[in-house]
Amino acid sequence: MHRVRLEIPCENYLNDVQDIAREFSPYLEIDADSPHFLGWNFCYQDGNFNINIYSSNWGDYKDSLKIDNDDELLYKKYTKRFLKHSLYKFLSKNLGVKLPYGSLTGVRPTKLYYELTERGYQAEEYLIDEFMVSKQKVKLIADCVKNQQGIINTNKNAVALFINIPFCPTRCNYCSFISTELFRVQKELHKYIDNVQAGIADFKNFLSKTNHKITSIYIGGGTPTCIGIDMLNTLLSPLSDFGLEFTVEAGRPDTITKEMLIMLKQNNVTRISINPQSFNQKTLQKIGRNHTVDDIHKCYDMAKELGFVVNMDLISGLQGESYQDFCYSVDQAILLNPSNITIHTLSIKRGAKITQEGEKKKEFGNIAKMNNYAYNALYSAGYQPYYMYRQKNTADNLENVGFFRDNCQCKYNIDMMEESSSIFGIGAGAMSKKVTGSRLERLANPKGFREYIDRINSIVQNKRQFFNF
Ligand code: SF4
Asked: Could you tell me the distance, in angstroms and rounded to a whole number, from the CA of residue 284 to the centre of ligand 1?
């Protein structure tokens, strides 16, 4: 493993270019105290954009691209792409490592695929030639796009509703969401729910005053079911008459009872997530989840009996899990045959307990092999991928992929990930999006639930301004 300090003479495009160096972790670690350096500078001269990469370990490298700088927006786009491409080539050659996504960074590879197609490119060839994405990943991206057809939103007046309930019974040790353990919020919980209820009333007001059409509802978190039947019922009942795709993340089996599921059904919830993450008991304990493998089976059976479409999340790269452990979980999930299985690759960010405990990304082993097993097993069992996204600090630079069977794609997941529909976000950390043609605007609610409560009046006003009602 090589340690280098980054020498950065220019702040332009810094985040994007730095991301490439970071993607080579654990083969390359950025260390401000290293005696070895890696740097780059660039300039535009006589119609050419030139980059010079220099390093103490591998010498210098120069590259040049002819770019027309008449169109400022395109100029910026291509220079950024070129810088990333050059640094990727340099590091890939000197470290002897090819990354699955080549020089492609960013959360939404499928969105780029759509953009390339719209601009008349052969998206698959372009991703391979220009971004050096592996053929295997290009197929995954293309399959997701193919499986979104007929479901992805095309109505410019569409809006999805997202409500965040950022509380959980306990905190998983890899969690970097804003979720707080329920016992810590007992005093403020009622106030938070009251504010969310008022947000729902405001959303209905928005629908009646504008020509927006609601297309899906998603209650996420956290674990919304941890707040209990009565409280959750007060939030869901004003939404129960829309007759749409209506998802509640039930997530943790220790929050699900038959009565809870019946209440969800009575409110016309159509989809729930029951997230095992792993079917290995020792792992569940290690990652801080307060439920057993048996609980997962019981909840799933009850949910199927009541006719829910069920998604199950699994995570590759969990602490202490071997390749065999993960494959066992995949096989168990497939045996249950839920409508959706989502494979997440562990992503360690600031705020996760295991980072704080000194866990290192490199110790997670060969996650790519685990994901390959999962994808092959899912394809063989008749599942197809339909949405995907990438996060920073993901083990082996991989991705999260949602699989479906029997036409059970989740519309909300597609529209949210492709940013193909507006979203009205309620609750702490919820993001509202306004899609107008190719223009996208975002409005984020404060992340902390206490701040959300304290600032509710200005949040409501900002939202009304943002959506113009
Ligand atoms: S269930 Fe999800 S949101 Fe809650 S602590 Fe675990 S990872 Fe975080």
From this structure: 12
Q: What CA–CA distances, in Å, run from 21 to 51, 101, 166, 247?
A: 16, 13, 33, 38
Residue ID of nearest Cα to ligand 1 atom 5: 171
* Assigned domain for 126 exists: no
Which CATH number characterizes residue 293's domain? Answer: 3.80.30.20
Ligand 1 atom with the shortest distance to the CA of 174: 7
In a domain, 149, yes or no: no
Nearest to 174 by CA among 354, 323, 328: 354
User: How many CB atoms neighbour CB 336 within 10 A?
Assistant: 17
- Which helix (H) or strand (E) is 327 found in, with range? helix 323-336
The reply to whether 203 falls in a domain is yes
Q: Does residue 51 sit in the same domain as residue 197?
A: no
> Which residue's CA lies nearest to atom 3 of ligand 1?
222
**Nearest-atom index, ligand 1, CA of 171:** 5
What pLDDT, in 10s, does the model give residues 304-343? 999 999 999 999 989 889 999 999 999 999 999 999 999 9
What span, in angstroms and rounded, lies between the C-alpha atoms of 446 and 455?
8
Instruction: Report in angstroms the alpha-carbon separations of 415 from 329, 409, 410.
Output: 29, 11, 9
Q: Which residues pair with 388 in a beta bridge?
A: 401
Domains contained in the chain, number: 2
| pTM metric for this prediction | 0.93
Phi, psi of 62 (to 5 degrees): -120, 145
CA of 367 to the centre of ligand 1 (A): 21
The per-residue pLDDT for range 229-243, each reduced to its tens digit, is: 999 999 999 999 999
The set of protein residues with a Cβ atom below 6 angstroms from ligand 1 is 168, 171-172, 175, 177, 179, 221-223, 251-252
Q: Are residues 264 and 162 in the same domain?
A: yes
The 8-class DSSP code of residue 268 comes to T
Most ligand 1 atoms within 8 A of CB, residue of 173, 174, 176, 177 to mutate: 177
Ligand 1 atom with the shortest distance to the CA of 222: 3
Residue 91 belongs to what domain range?
2-97
